[in-house]
Design brief:
The protein has 345 residues and is of the alpha/beta class. It is built from 13 helices and 8 strands. The chain has 2 domains: 150 residues, Beta Polymerase, domain 2 (2-Layer Sandwich); 119 residues, no CATH class. It is 60% helix and 11% strand.
């Protein structure tokens, strides 16, 4: 290196504490903003350029830099997202957080050639007023990040020019990754739209139009279909209702042959009175003052099993399904079966 570059290396050594502070503040601001905006990402990472890396850069093109502060990537940060459309959302956030050097920033997505595959990413050069140095911020997806890392390893690690045959195969794989990236974003958008439609159908009571699955059952539970029955049961002992998750009952309703939320609702309405009668005898001679929010749906399932001839073994399978297999389930099933038999359920 010439004298000019050696002087910049000395300046770099003196500036290292400031560069480290800049990196930590940038990462902290990014993480706080992502959390505040409820944006889930794969990674937020950064680095200060090492002495060896800077020496290599200056050896190649040191003459283009008048001072150390002309080098924009002494500090580099990266946000890796799950989906391509999240890059634009986070970009809007970044533009509010930092001063952007638009002259040196580049959106490689706009430069992408039709006859060439590769990773697309957004590169910002940013500035914070209290620091003398700029920093680079890169936004890319997980698949773009994987492609960039693999391409760098294959293409540059050996220092040997890659034959065209291998380049063509690499580019074909890159094209597949780009298609996968776009498809993941498209699927997420369509699933989000589907969930909105399902929620609207549930809100409007059009349950026969909604197929029963994990998403739709969650929407059904949000409408709190068992609350009225739970309140009636709680009133037996003036008990408090303790909320518990009810999603595990999806497999039970599916086993009953329910195909739509309308099927579930009809089953609930058909058996809820018998479910209340069962609860009244379960609690009537006790002083329980706390009950689970699952009591209503559990008793509906119990009377449905008994009405369909499932008997004690049907109850054992039911308790295994919702509580996990354990030796106590058979005893609980026998006690429940005997109580229900006395009620002629």
């Amino acid at each position: 290196m010439d004298l000019h570059c050696e002087m910049m290396m000395e300046e770099y050594q003196a500036a290292l504490p400031e560069l480290e502070r800049l990196l930590q503040e940038v990462l902290a601001k990014l993480r706080e903003a992502l959390e505040r905006n409820e944006m889930l990402v794969t990674a937020v990472e950064g680095r200060v350029k090492t002495r060896k890396s800077l020496e290599g850069k200056l050896a190649l093109k040191g003459a283009k830099y008048a001072t150390l502060s002309d080098i924009t990537d002494l500090v580099g940060a990266r946000i890796v997202t799950f989906y391509t459309d999240d890059v634009d959302r986070i970009a809007a956030m970044v533009e509010q957080l930092f001063e952007i050097d638009w002259t040196n920033s580049v959106d490689k997505r706009m430069l992408h050639q039709l006859d060439s595959f590769g990773y697309n990413s957004l590169h910002y050069v940013c500035k914070m007023p209290e620091y003398d140095f700029r920093f680079e911020l890169q936004l890319r997806t997980t698949l773009q990040h994987a492609w960039a890392s693999i391409n760098h390893d294959i293409g540059y690690k050996t220092g040997v020019e890659i034959p065209r045959e291998y380049l063509r195969r690499i580019n074909r794989l890159a094209g597949i990754l780009e298609m996968a990236d776009d498809e993941f974003s498209r699927i997420r958008t369509e699933i989000t739209d589907y969930r909105r439609r399902v929620h609207q159908l549930v809100q409007n009571g059009k349950l026969d139009d909604v197929q029963l699955d994990g998403d739709t059952f969650s929407s059904y539970l949000q409408a709190r279909p068992f609350d009225a029955l739970n309140r009636r049961i709680a009133a037996i002992n003036q008990a408090e209702i303790q909320e518990v998750p009810l999603n595990r009952y999806l497999r039970v309703f599916s086993a009953f042959g329910c195909k739509t939320l309308g099927d579930v609702q009809r089953l609930v309405k058909h058996y809820e009175e018998d479910a209340y009668r069962l609860a009244r005898h379960q609690l009537g001679n006790t002083d329980l003052d706390i009950i689970s929010s699952a009591v209503g749906v559990q008793n509906i399932c119990i009377v449905c099993i008994l009405a369909s001839g499932g008997g004690k073994m049907g109850l054992v399978r039911f308790f295994d399904a919702i509580n996990g297999h354990n030796t106590q389930n058979e005893a609980i099933a026998e006690m429940t079966f005997n109580l229900a038999k006395n009620l002629q359920l």
